[in-house]
Amino acid sequence: MSYFALASLELVLLGLLSGVAGTLIVLRRRSFFAVALSHATFPGGVVFALAGWNLLIGQALFAAVLVLAMTVLARIPGQGRQVTSGVVLSFGFALGTLLAALNPGLGVPVEALLVGSPLGVSVTDVVVTASVLVAALVLVAVFGRRMLFHTFDPVGFAAAGFRSWPIELAVTGVIAASVVVAMPAVGAILGVAVLIAPAAAARALTQRLEWIPVISAVLGIAGGLIGLWISREFSIAAGGSVGLVLTAMFLVCAAWGARKVSAR
């Protein structure tokens, strides 16, 4: 399979993943958490690059540590999830930058960790992304109703006798895994754009919850493939091109949604 076909397949899978993980991020208002997580896994990639190991594994392991750290810190009185996410983001990004600066002979360019490259993904990257997509779909199929219940009525969810931690664990796991697998294609900085922008655009277009994942997946796939085509035709960076196309889609959808609201 050619590198362009691999890149296209990876972006299609990420587009589908935006319909699952992106919808959870947007509906549960976890955008800043996803951004913090994507940036803060930077040190894991640097350490594994120095050791000559798979970067994706390093970022995944570091993501698991950070999720645990944020969960613990969020329980401190007077602190919230947004505060802890900000602290972890600053710590992770600063540590990654320091490690990269101390090792100028790093085998993998720092830019590859930060912005990624759809045209540089491997068969392994595609397989891992597909596996995360399947796992996310299974979790949503099993816990979907409870996720929605907990999202919109956490007090009622607890009053009904349900425990919150399995839902939090499932949601956080889906988000963390999705953020990590998006990094080889679009990096730590642009990774969340691939997941969040399509879902945010879908949220602006419809108020029907059942349509948000579908619209998000369609927009995610279309934006990824259009961005990849533009990068090839005009010889520009593929990751940046995809990010800009998805951002433009969100702005158009947000404007359309605001127009419909004002017209009522």
From TrEMBL:
Pfam families (UniProt xref): ABC-3 (PF00950)
Protein name as it appears in the record: Metal ABC transporter permease
Family: Belongs to the ABC-3 integral membrane protein family.
Keywords from the named record: Membrane, Transmembrane, Transmembrane helix, Transport
Entries under SUPFAM superfamilies matching the protein: ABC transporter involved in vitamin B12 uptake, BtuC
Database matches in Gene3D superfamilies: ABC transporter involved in vitamin B12 uptake, BtuC
Localization, UniProt: Cell membrane; Membrane
Residues spanning the membrane: 6-27, 32-50, 56-74, 86-106, 126-144, 151-167, 173-197, 209-230, 236-258
Alphabetical list of InterPro entries matching this protein: ABC_BtuC-like, ABC_TroCD
Organism: Leucobacter manosquensis
Primary residence: membrane
Membrane recorded as keyword: yes
Membrane topology: Multi-pass membrane protein
